[in-house]
Description:
Layout: H1 3-27, H2 33-54, H3 65-72, H4 77-87, H5 92-95, H6 107-126
Helix pairs in contact: 1-2, 1-6, 2-3, 2-6, 4-6
Amino acid sequence: MPPELELVRAWLSKGHSDLLLGERAVTGEPALTDLACFHAQQAMEKALKGLMVFRGIEPPRTHLLATLFQSCGPIDDRLSALEEQLVGLSVFAVTARYPDLEEPPSRERARQALDLARQAFMIILENLPDEVRP
């Protein structure tokens, strides 16, 4: 596999791990909802960066999903329909990591964030060749 595709696969594997960690965080007792939301955001960030590498675009060093979407260009109409909701996950890149920035989200909100990230992650995978999928 060419090095570029290996890097795409590495980004996607890391993003897939974030989805798994987010699921464990939201279903565990006690639920770690802030971390579940953080991992939902991270999964999207890594999936978008993997897509960018696949397209020959150097991913910017940012956690802002709006910037990453803009850098990716058109992806898929299904993903475009979710973009506004996905961009809203960017807040979790910071709030989950620092104390007293915000109350932890509810388990329901964390579940929604993970479901949204998982749905978008699958759409991105469908737009990439099988050999880079985790």
